[in-house]
Amino acid sequence: MSRKAHTLVAIFVAIFNNMAVSQETNADLASFVSPFIGTKNMGHTFPGATVPFGMIQLSPETGNQPMYINGQYNKKVYSYCSGYQYNDSTIFGFSHTHFSGTGHSDLGDFLIMPTTGRLMLEPGEASNPGSGYFSRFSHDQETATPGYYQVKLSTYGINAELTATERVGFHQYTFSKSDSAHILLDLMANIYNYDDKNVWTFVRVENDTLITGYRQTSGWARTRTLYFAMVFSKPVKSYGHKKYDQSPYKGFWRKFNESENFPEMAGRNIRAYFNFMTEDDEKIKIKFALSAVSTEGALKNLQAEIPGWDFDQIKGLVREKWNHQLRKIEVKTHTLEQKESFYTALYHTMLSPVVFEDVDGNYRGLDNNVHPSDGFTNYTIFSLWDTYRALHPLFNLIEPSRNADMINSMLAHYDQSVHHMLPVWSHYANENWCMIGYHAVSVLADAAAKGNTSFDLQHALEAAKNTSQVAYFDGIGDYMIFGFVPEDKSASSVSKTLEYAYDDWCIAQLASFSGDSLTASIYLKRSANYNHVFNHKSRFMQPRLSDGSWKSPFDPLQTHDQGFIEGNAWNYGLYVPQQVDSLVSMMGGKAAFSAHLDSLFTMHLDDSYFEQTEDITRDGIIGNYVHGNEPGHHIVYLYNWTNEPWKTQSRVRMIMETMYGAAPDGLCGNDDAGQMSAWYIFSALGFYPVCPGSPEYALGSPMVEEAIVHLENGKDMHIIVRNQSLKNIYVKKVLLNGIELKAPTINHFDLIKGGELEFLMTSKPVLK
């Protein structure tokens, strides 16, 4: 960029940020979103086309890594949790379903790839040009904005454009003149792919433009079926498929040549192709609808959401949907990069959970039966070990009705569960049991605590209690017997004990809201079980054995075999959000606790302590504090329980400045279905939900200069930050509607009344 251009940008930023915050000046907030922002080496967020919370998440696959090579786990596959890596220069096609930066993966359904020339059905190897149907591409010829993706497939000279509604992907491919143009439908492609992941595939060529079918897969979701309906904008010239599975029994189908122009395709592993004649600059469009219920459901979704063929119209409608969502919070920031980081984070918080029902309200349930959603919209993708911490609390603030739908989806999951459990980590009518705890109870309690009770509280309490008593789940039986999870009975025992104790507290809150004082008393007592894994001699949470002894030897820095998962005693041991005052007292009082936090942020953690943990890299670590992973997200706010809350303010600002950015590697760890970004949104506004299930937020140091949060109740919360700058990171005073707050907390019910929250900033710590 020229020096003159830099000057013009600087002038534009100065003018823009001096404008008042209003819907008029921020009419196109989507322009501040960068879908490319992700991580350097881990599961990237996908840059493709989707609407807020849409089931269709249509995005390029830039790699083709199998999950296993010669029976051994392939570590490279982890980089493709979301299908896209910014450092790649190849595209293998465009799939319709994705996760956003998760630590494990699945999906990548129904890959479409346009090609020309010799028909190739093998994907090929990225290192070997011409070995398969993949194409080269350059970021110079690539665009991604909310709801729209474009790239030039340089190998074929094809311009690919994608947009999407909730249930329908819309492709537009611009070809040159060719008598050998192809659209490939790779029904073998999956994310985290391995031999035999496909269970069965079935395709029907209904006529010369309509293709229907379904595919069953067994992966992270071990029993998953998706139906599709695909429509071309022009008739197919010819078509065919190749079947890659070898079945000794072919029945009487052997009388047909099934591979060419035969209107039924069935098998475990199939790649289909559709041939066309094209003129220069001719556009072939494809509408691709999904349903977890039936082909009929997919066809209904198709007709309801994209009845016509105007790609630009749908693209514009999708962009406006994003602007409507992003306008829920309007901000003025000191720099353009801060604005881009903020709105990209807000965008990330709206990628999941996703709508999981047809336009007629039918959905496939956990019991594999079809159910009507009665009075709610059904959602899926609940990465609850991550998202209960800040994502669902954010929904309770800016869109409680949607969060209530998600809660009713969780209660439907419970009703359909043969284990009588709420979801742990669920997607696409499956429970995958990933991670520890059962944190749907936190989502229920947080909603109830914040007045969002558009669900049956008694039903929620019943579901929470039953979930907490499933003895065969992850050490719960021993937890109920011993008051802690013994390490010789169940690994990650300290983490489980701490998480179960917090979940017990959440159940106690639900019981209180439901008027059940006996249950509240029982679970409040259980919520103190963290005491049983605290060693008063070492002042660390430590693993215990079933005989009551402490496991030995003990290394508080070690992640593995020391009672913790994705953390250690130094950081995960600080997880007692329900009773922080008690934790402070156990660790020697406010001064000692503050010193412990100081050491956490300043000590060195050697790579050997986390090199075997895929979710953690040096990029997300400050000392021994791991911001790149969720269990520590509350820690920086714990100084508020000492006499030095200014340290929270300093470190929150430092984390926002160093762990987030507007570059393609702008996240320091997996976004984990929006949790990493939700932390940023709360912190940028100046407060954070340390303990979901409580109406109290801990105050921090806001990044914004000004913000308006448009609340669902019709009121506006106006945040004003006086004397904001890169140096003025400390809070001198906080006023709520002109009245000074005396404690470093603010109540949810005070916020949703609307009005003005004012921060007065200074460059020096304000000492108590």
Task: Summarize the helices and strands and which ones pair or pack.
Elements: H1 3-18, E1 59-61, E2 68-69, E3 72-73, E4 90-91, E5 93-95, E6 111-116, E7 135-136, E8 142-145, E9 148-153, E10 158-164, E11 168-175, E12 178-186, E13 198-205, E14 210-217, E15 224-232, E16 238-243, E17 264-267, E18 270-278, E19 282-291, H2 295-305, H3 311-326, E20 329-332, H4 336-348, E21 354-355, E22 362-364, E23 370-372, E24 379-380, E25 382-383, H5 384-387, H6 391-398, H7 400-416, E26 425-426, H8 440-449, H9 457-467, H10 476-482, H11 493-513, H12 517-526, E27 534-535, E28 540-541, H13 580-586, H14 590-602, E29 621-622, E30 625-626, H15 645-659, H16 675-685, E31 687-688, E32 696-699, E33 706-710, E34 716-722, E35 730-736, E36 739-740, E37 745-747, H17 748-751, E38 755-762
Parallel strand pairs: 34-38
Antiparallel strand pairs: 1-5, 2-3, 4-7, 6-12, 8-9, 9-10, 10-11, 11-19, 12-18, 13-14, 13-17, 14-15, 15-19, 16-18, 20-33, 21-24, 22-23, 25-26, 27-28, 29-30, 31-32, 32-37, 33-34, 35-36, 35-38
Helix pairs in contact: 4-16, 6-7, 7-8, 8-9, 8-11, 9-11, 11-12
